[in-house]
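Hypothesis: this fold can be encoded by more than one sequence.
Test: take the structure tokens below, design a sequence, compare later.
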């Protein structure tokens, strides 16, 4: 299952940029099945103030797990990936998942790398007896209007184990 999205961008805080939104059809999830969501971002940092970046993995509109990272304060154009993964632990109306998210950013030099170690791992209940949406979203946590954030080319892969 793959969902490709066009580039979407924002310059303000609390503007959620969604990537790789897909639907998991009712009663199709399998125990130990892994869903991998991935997208790419560009963060143009031009202002003196550095916002944090928030990454969230949502299932059916509810945040399952999230992480916050602080890019370097150096003005630069940063690129990177946002990733989320969840494994089905139980199916049906009493279903559950174990999930994790991570954000990795890269600038012009190795000194401008960020993220990587910023990961959240969580477990949550998910009713797989109904259609469920899954998506990643990223946003600047603080409004710095001279900065901009774009996400592009999001997709979700389904892997049975």
């Amino acid at each position: 299952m793959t969902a490709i999205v066009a580039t979407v961008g924002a310059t303000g805080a609390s503007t959620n940029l969604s990537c790789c939104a897909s639907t998991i059809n009712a009663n199709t999830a399998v125990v130990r099945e892994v869903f991998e969501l991935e997208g790419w971002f560009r963060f143009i940092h031009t202002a003196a103030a550095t916002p944090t970046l928030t990454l969230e993995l949502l299932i059916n509109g509810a945040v399952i797990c999230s992480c916050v990272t602080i890019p370097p304060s150096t003005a630069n154009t940063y690129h990177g990936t946002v990733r989320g993964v969840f494994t089905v632990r139980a199916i049906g109306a009493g279903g559950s998942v174990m999930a994790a998210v991570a954000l990795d950013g890269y600038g012009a030099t190795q000194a401008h790398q960020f993220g990587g170690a910023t990961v959240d791992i969580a477990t949550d209940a998910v009713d797989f007896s109904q259609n469920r949406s899954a998506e990643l979203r990223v946003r600047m946590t603080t409004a710095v209007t001279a900065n901009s954030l774009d996400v592009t080319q999001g997709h979700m892969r389904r892997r049975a184990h």
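DSSP finds no helices and ten strands in the chain. The chain has one domain: 8-159.
Hypothesis status: open.
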